[in-house]
Automatic annotation (TrEMBL):
One Gene Ontology term of the molecular function aspect: NAD binding
Binding-site residues, Mg(2+): 218, 242, 246
GO-annotated cellular components: cytosol
Gene Ontology BP terms: L-leucine biosynthetic process
Quaternary structure and interacting proteins, as annotated: Homodimer.
Cofactor: Mg(2+); Mn(2+)
Cofactor note: Binds 1 Mg(2+) or Mn(2+) ion per subunit.
Protein name (record): 3-isopropylmalate dehydrogenase
UniProt keyword annotations, A-Z: Amino-acid biosynthesis, Branched-chain amino acid biosynthesis, Cytoplasm, Leucine biosynthesis, Magnesium, Manganese, Metal-binding, NAD, Oxidoreductase
Keyword Transcription part of the UniProt annotation: no
Length: 352
């Protein structure tokens, strides 16, 4: 099992250390870790946020464990040199079009939520976010209007094949869960979304056992807070999925708890090749303080074990250890506790 570890910027190295601690504690057979530079750290060392050797390492690995990228000191670089381009580049170069972001209340831990416990208790949803298209990858730039003003533009576009493949992923995910799929778009205003909706409806003919519904994204944001328990699987585009998943994290408790898997079509000896990362960013406001919650990173490692290595039992062990640590009161500052990054990593490893 060849695992590329890309810690990145900000809290990335701190939380990665704890994920590796937990993986080490599992004593898995035949694991090889490779470490690569990415993001602002890579820019400083190699002049590029995604150096060729890092990309090569990721191509050769069975899975990539990714911390976070983003560094305020790099915010004024030309866009192609900014740290965030590294994660966008990896997602597109590795063909990772399906981003799975589960959000579920942990039994007995509903009081972690920013919502009332009786509302939070019912949360068990999966956001399936398209990851290779949309406004993040469309033509972009700045130009001058005829009136002489500066104008920024980013083209939002989806081809039908891009929508079709993520729709299949989402319908299959719904089949393996409660059989309900809600497609989130803005078809009342956007042509991109109308095509999205039409294609999702076409694909639905192949999944008569899945109940399909549609929701506009503004309503979906509201419904996630009003009654998140109504959702099973949500499928949406890159931009809407990015925003809704950060929102869903607070419905569960903290952005420091939500993990993700980014998958494509490439199979490895053990499962589906993927990149696994917390849904949050590099949190520069708390970097270097040992104050970050590493649970989202640790849970991303669990998703890696499940999806890329077919090790369901080990994945479940890690998830149970995280839940047990929380039940025992091991909470970071994001959850109102006092445990530091390392304390949390050790506590999870001890509960495996
Ligand atoms: N996949 C990636 O690498 C991503 C990178 N970014 C980048 O990260 C940088 C910071 O972006 P922000 O908008 O501030 O989002 P962020 O997710 O890094 O932080 C938002 C807030 O949540 C807190 N937070 C995040 N993760 C936490 C954790 N594990 N434990 C405790 N608190 C946590 C932060 O302290 C901050 O107050 C930017 O450069 C951004 O572009 C943002 C999102 C994803
Ligand atoms: C390019 C990233 C910074 C986008 C993001 O926020 C995410 O994937 O969660
Ligand atoms: Mg995001």
């Amino acid at each position: 099992m060849k695992i590329a570890l890309l810690a990145g910027d900000g809290i990335g190295p701190e939380i990665m250390e704890e994920a590796v601690r937990v993986l080490d504690a599992l004593r898995l057979p035949q694991v090889t870790f490779w470490r690569g530079d990415v993001g602002g750290a890579a820019y400083r060392r190699h002049g590029h946020p995604l150096p060729e050797e890092t990309l090569k390492m990721c191509r050769a690995a069975d899975a990539v464990l990714f911390g976070a990228v983003g560094d305020p000191e790099c915010d004024n670089l030309e866009r192609h040199l900014r740290p965030e381009q590294a994660i966008l580049g990896l997602r597109s170069e590795l063909g990772l079009f399906a981003n799975l972001r589960p959000a579920a209340a942990m039994p007995g831990l509903e009081d972690l939520s920013a919502l009332r416990p009786e509302i939070a208790r019912a949360i068990d949803l999966l956001i399936v976010r398209e990851l290779n298209g949309d406004v993040y990858f469309g033509e972009k730039g700045t130009r001058t209007t005829p009136g002489g003003q500066r104008e920024g533009y980013d083209v939002m576009a989806y081809s039908e094949s891009e929508v079709r493949r993520i729709a299949h992923t989402a319908f299959r995910a719904a089949q393996g869960r409660k059989g309900r799929l809600c497609s989130v778009d803005k078809a009342n205003v956007l042509e991109t979304s109308q095509l999205w909706r039409d294609v999702v409806v076409e694909v639905s003919a192949e999944y008569p056992d899945v109940a399909l519904s549609h929701m506009y994204v503004d309503n979906a944001a509201m419904q996630l807070v009003r009654n998140p328990g109504q959702f099973d699987v949500m499928v949406t585009g890159n931009l809407f999925g990015d925003i809704l998943s950060d929102q869903a994290s607070m419905c569960v408790g903290s952005i420091g708890l939500l993990a993700s898997a980014s998958l494509g079509e490439q199979q490895t000896e053990f499962g589906t090749k993927g990149l696994f990362e917390p849904i949050h960013g590099s949190a520069p406001d708390i970097a270097g303080q040992g104050a970050a919650n590493p649970m989202a990173m640790i849970l991303s490692a669990a998703m890696m074990l499940r999806h890329s290595f077919g090790r369901e039992e080990d994945a479940a062990r890690v998830e149970a250890a995280v839940a047990q640590a929380l039940a025992d009161g091991v909470k970071g500052a994001d959850l109102g506790g006092t445990a530091g990054t390392k304390d949390i990593g050790i506590a999870v490893a001890e509960r495996l």
